Amino acid sequence: MITSALALPQAPSRAPRASRTLAALGAVGVLAAALVGPGAGAAAAAPSGPCTDPEGVTVVVDKTDLGGEVEMGCAPQAASGSEALVAAGFTDTRDAAGLICAIDALPDPCPAEFTGSYWSYWTAEPGGAWEMAMVGPDEAVPAAGGVEGWRYSDGSAGPTVDAPAAPTQEAADQAATSGEAGDDAEGDAGAVDDGTTASPAAQEPTEADGPSPALIAGIGVVALLAVAALVVSRRRSAHGPAGQD
Fold this sequence. Notes:
- With 245 residues, the chain is α+β, with helices and mostly antiparallel strands.
- The protein has a domain at 57-153: Ferric Hydroxamate Uptake Protein, Chain A, domain 1, CATH 2.170.130.
- Helices cover 34% and strands 14% of the residues.
- It contains five helices and seven strands, in the order αββαβββββααα.
């Protein structure tokens, strides 16, 4: 007796379909990161004037040669001059060589080639004269209570204002008192002057405490894309491999 073997059809592989589904979900994840990510970081504090703490490093940025003003900020502590610049509330931009070519987006754009002006880096004792730093800002270690200066020019002179004097003990005490008063005010925010509890309306968070409308819209888009990817995957599973629908 002659018997013939019949080849049984093999079940179509689901690996390509699974790969497509994973790719779709991966794209959704990337979109979610793009929508949520930028809002997650905390914005740097703006420069608020010279230090009132004798241990802080005052940073002076002279933008007058670029049509701006002289601004001062305080770095409570910093391991380098460039860290002090950022800690004091300024932002720096680096060129391809890793050098600071712009502070607070000035000049804009960063010069593509050297034209004679640059952000020169200076140091000074409180109330003293400006001296050009002997090392770059990434290597310099700011002295506690010292003053750092930046000016966009040809490097022949430091900032156009004198280095601020060291804070007096009275100023330091006032700053400490203001900080303590602020903490007390936050602790007493839920109570009125007569000691009774404030009304629920007074304790409700403001709109600024909640998520922004852009973030809510972004999350909604991500959710819709995820649902669409799941529906497409299930429809393909129900009709078999592509080309056989």
